[in-house]
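job 3f2a | input accepted
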Amino acid sequence: MNNLLMVLFSSIKARITPIWTKLKYWTSWNFIRTKLITRVRNALAKLFDVKPRNQRDYYTIGHYLVSRRLAHAVVIVVGLLCLCYVVWVNPVFQAGQNASGVRVYSYTSIPLRFHSGEVKIRAKDGQIAYEGNVDKGWASGYGKLYDKDRNLIYAGNFEKNKFSGAGKLYYPSGQLRYDGAFADNQFSGSGKLYRESGSERYDGEFSLGLMEGKGTLFDGSGKAVFTGAFQQDDVVYAQLLGKNAQEIRELYTGKSTIYQYDNQYAAALEDIGAFYVASQSEDSLEDAPVADTVYVEKNSFSYGGKQLTTIAEVSQVLGEPVFEGNSYMTFPEAVEIRRLTEKGKNIRIDPELSAEQDFSESYLVNHYNQDQLLYLYVFEKDDITYTFTASDRNGSFFVYSLE
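job 3f2a | predicted structure (403 res):
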């Protein structure tokens, strides 16, 4: 009985297995994909098979015979192109208009690429990111740019999606940041720079986004403190050399602090982070002392469009130092170290400077440690001597001077 059942089961299995295998093959993705591709390829081949086979496959146009299938294919292609034009370019099918009649586009909209005139452009989140003029889809002419919270970023002229010409740039708070000329998205030309508090910071010339050329610097209250030359966003300190106190006061009108020792005095120009040293002539008190050295209270040196922070970097632009080694601390160096220490700078040197306040902005220095050693790097370039002061040979410079 068992043998009979096994024979019956084997016979049934032998008949069902081929059917199941075929069903599994016909329903597989590879089979379906192959069939679809074959049918699409055959259909396209039939559609574009424009090679005529007999006289009935031609249209007679004047003295010419034109393939019927070629003519049909051309009509289909031209029809599709016309449909694309109607849908993508024709104003009837373009983006909607707002109440003022200005067209509103998505920033990825194809019709925007063909439009010239006033528009509004939506960002990916649906908010209006730009409103103004475009030329073939480029922001060109006057327009306004907004951030995702609808805060005004920029209002002014554009050229091919970039700030160009007169414009105004704003802080995220809405406070005006810059008002002036732009080129290639950067401050370029004449303009005014403002702090986020609203006070004016700088009025003058710019290049590549930086203060460059003649301009006026203002303090936090909006009072003018310096008028002169700027380079790479910084004061050109060399312009102070060789000038007497009166000439410097014509450039610098900010807060000053005077330190005097014997026949030397150092005038700190608080609002531009520098001070100059002048000596009174022993031969004549009538000769006005001039600034023979200017100290810059910074641990970075601006030169050749670069901000240099190490002696190795300085050596790359100024050459090898003409002197390197220990030197006894001088009066202006003692004043400078004390000033930097009072401002919170970590300098491992005590100048032991004692001074009496003569007036509200004047100090008479009685003593400083003349035996204290400093480490100096001295360079010469373009008739100017640059001295970089460090606490020791392996230390970074904390101030530099020009003379």
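job 3f2a | DSSP finds six helices and 26 strands in the chain.
job 3f2a | closed
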